[in-house]
Amino acid sequence: MENMNILVTGAAGYIGGSVVATLLSGDTHFAAKNIFAAVRAEEQVRSLQPLGIKVLQLDLRNEQEVAEAVLQNEIDIVINTASSIDGRLAAHFISALGKRREVTSKDTYHIHSSVTTGYSKEGGWPYGTIKDGDPVYKLEKELNDGFPIRKTNTAITELAKERGVTSFIVGVPFVYGTGSGEWKKLSQNIPATIKASIALKTVYKFNQDSKFAAVHISDLAEYYVLIVKKILQGEKLPSGEEGYYFAVAHETGWWDVAQGLADVLRARGLVTEPTVRVWPSDDMAAEALDLPRQFVRLMHTARVTIDYNNRYPLGWAPKWDEQKFLASMDVEVADAFRYEKGRTTLFDALNGTN
């Protein structure tokens, strides 16, 4: 397996931190000297340094700073978990990887984290079910509707082609579970619902249920690592316009999740209502959940139709399924108390922060 230097952005975040931890785990055989982590704050640098990797404090919006980091540290692969919306961050790394390729004649790689809500009817996707291998880039390009996630996907795919960088886009669904990173341990939806439910003494749901695509954080981190392993082994994976991958392990229903949380919170004496009630308004939901009003319903009702039944690409074998997830609500509640550290990370990541 060829040695390459790997940089993970958003390494103090929920997904990025878990990717770093998985790269360093005993069964992956990646050397710490080849792992680099990009973070935003000095305290995050200090948190990750004991791992033995090189931690870079970077302003990802600064193109020159990003270029210097990539070239000086001889970065070959960037796993970008820092933002799904702000295409500038990915563009800066792709441009830098293109310069490195020009200088060294070595192939360089960019793995971008997108989100699957861009492929829901509620998110304006008119084409229905999609899967790995479908012409997703072509469909996004034809749609050309300016939806931020899809706009970023097409823009960075085109830039990577122009700069000679091998690119992949990973569609990330609803992510749950406790992360293995050093900084942020939790995602957004479930901890926000737990916090709001305790404050209101009742668990609420939207009046529309939805089966949504989901994955446990440990399985998602392994998905990224599998792509890297394939690269290092010299396998020519579909990339660029054909390089869309969907890290979907299973589907689940939000009403089932809400009822599971209600059962656990009621048993702990943290809510008074034994059943889940419907949010009186989206405004109340947005305020209670501390989420943007324009996204709050989409996050809880979007039906993302990813065909994962021909499982799984890359030889991925996720360990978590719907049954195991729904049986883990007590752990979700316990860890929401154990690891809560300010605002959790989904919209931080979407907006380009850690």
TrEMBL record:
Show the Pfam families listed in the entry. Answer: Epimerase
One GO cellular component term noted in the UniProt record for this chain: cytoplasm
Domain of life according to the entry: Eukaryota
Q: Where are the transmembrane segments?
A: none
Residue ranges constituting the NAD-dependent epimerase/dehydratase domain according to the UniProt record: 6-85
Among Gene3D superfamilies, the record links this protein to: NAD(P)-binding Rossmann-like Domain
GO function term, MF aspect, one: aldehyde dehydrogenase (NAD+) activity
PANTHER family in UniProt: NAD(P)-BINDING DOMAIN-CONTAINING PROTEIN-RELATED, PROTEIN YEEZ
Query: Could you tell me what this protein is called?
Result: NAD-dependent epimerase/dehydratase domain-containing protein
Species: Xylaria multiplex
